[in-house]
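Researcher: I've got a protein sequence and the SMILES for zinc ion. Could you write out the 3D structure of the bound complex as C-alpha cells? I'd like something to compare against our soaking experiments later this week.
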Amino acid sequence: MPGPGVDHVATGRYRAPVQLHRIADRDGWSCWLCGGEIDPGAPVTSPARGTVDHLVPRSRGGSSELANLRLAHRRCNHRRGSLLPEMHWPDEWPMLMTVHVWTALARLAPRPGAAEVVAVAPLREVADDAASWLVERAEAFVPGGWESWCVEESSGPVAVWLRRPADAAPGTAGRPKHPDA
Ligand SMILES: [Zn+2]
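Model: Sure. Here is the predicted complex with zinc ion in place.
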C-alpha cells in the first residue's frame, strides 16, 4: 500500500523512485552509511542498488519527511536494519585497533573540544586515509564540524584522533541533524 514517500516513477523497470532522486538532488548519489557511490541505474535486485534509508528508523519514531531520509546501498541499509546509524571501518584497511565509531560520536558530539583516539593504524598513509574518511562520515551523521588528525607513536603505529572543534555547536548523535530539519 503506497504511503508517504512511495511515489515511484511509473515507467522504466530500472528507474529509481522519485524519492531517491529528490534525496540525490540534495545529497548526491552516495551512500550515507559507507560513503560509496550509488549507481542510479543499478538493477533492483543488486546489493549496490540505492534505497531510501531513515536516519532515525521508523521503529524508533523516525518520520518519513525528507529531512529524515538518506540514500543507502541496499546492502548497507539491510546491515543496519532498525539499529541506530552504524559505521563500519572499510575492510581493506589493516587497522591495529578501532573503536566503535558511533559510540565515539555519541560521546564526542555533545562535548566540543574533547578528543579521543578512534583508531591505530600500522602506517602513516593508512592513518591519513582513515582520518579523512572519518571526518566525512562523522559530518554525515552529526553535521557541524569535525577534525581528525594523526599522531605517530614512537613505537611505529599511528594514532587517529577525532574531535568536534571547541568552537563548534554541541551535537547529538542519534537524532536527525540536517539543515532542512
Ligand atoms: Zn553503502
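Model: The first strand starts at residue 50 and ends at 54. Residues 31, 33-34, 36, 72-73, 76 surround zinc ion (CB under 6 Å).
Researcher: Great, I'll pass this along to the crystallography team.
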